[in-house]
Amino acid sequence: MAGEPDAFVFLGKRGGFLRGNNFRREARWADALKEMGVKGLHFHDLRHTGNTLAAQSGASLADLKARMGHDSDRAALIYQHATRDADQKIADALSARVEDERGRTMASGRPHRLE
């Protein structure tokens, strides 16, 4: 149903799900791109962007596979691009963990075991 959180954005003439082989024609994809002033955007580009953003938000491999409808780890790994931003977040988290453990050691006078 329209307005539902899981409603389809593009529907066929009878309100049904569009398949890949009829999507461009039924959804009038070229007209929509032209109206937005966008050139060269393929529908699959939206899927790639959505899955890349999901991966960057912290989605696990299992989350991505479920979201994409794939059983293959290889397919889901495509969307987990390494980025400088992700590398910096990892480094910051590791630094925070080390500083936290250092603080515990200083407070107790004995080393704390990392878990």
From TrEMBL:
Domain called Tyr recombinase: residue spans: 1-92
UniProt entry keywords in alphabetical sequence: DNA recombination
InterPro entries: DNA_brk_join_enz, Integrase-like_cat_sf, Integrase_catalytic
Transmembrane segments: none
UniProt-annotated stretches for the region Disordered: 95-115
One Pfam assignment: Phage_integrase
Name listed for the protein in its UniProt record: Tyr recombinase domain-containing protein
Organism, as annotated: Streptosporangium longisporum
